[in-house]
Specification:
Redoxin, 9 strands, 227 residues, Thioredoxin_domain, alpha/beta, antioxidant
Amino acid sequence: MASFTMSKLLSLPATSATAAALFPTKTLPSIKPSPSTSFCCPLRIKPATLRLHSTKSAPTPIAATITVGTKLPSDKTLSYFDSAGEVQTTTICDLTKSKKTILFAVPGAFTPTCSQQHLPGFVGKSAELKSKGVDLIACVSVNDAFVMRAWKENLGINDEVLLLSDGNGEFTRAIGAELDLSDKPVGLGIRSRRYSMLVEDGVVKVLNTEEGGAFTSSGAEDLLKVL
């Protein structure tokens, strides 16, 4: 077969026939499951071992847009599944108006620290927090509402903590809490920094923020100390 020069190759008409001749496709063999293969095993989701600290050089600390005394963006919408299995939406105004609310955020559902420490800590201390005047405890994550529901069910959470989806990251961006985990091999992308805050009537009264995936100052115990 005669070889093409680059100029001749580029001069060829861009037709599907030409493309097919130059770059023939190969049909991959189909894969059939063996008769013994079973797909009926129950699925149990367990947190994977994952380090949320970047393998790159340490990032410059990012200051959140919000600080103590900031009024949260009241119009931002979050979603969740109610007890009847229906998707509901709520706003920051609904969550905080005339209330004392704890909002805390995690980098991702099903990730180790979030599943084993951060969220369970607030679930375990929910009664104590509410006895000190807290009306609502809510966990925010840049995950869709279906993932948040599955996470809630996996951890056996009832109404101790409301799990909220900030699926498009709009609330997270509005308060300057983005966390770029794009360099992770598991494809976390842009998520939320870990934080906890006490909000009264829409105004931030206490704010604990973390760098990267650290978990040192944003737990339930840290808020109990100031209530």
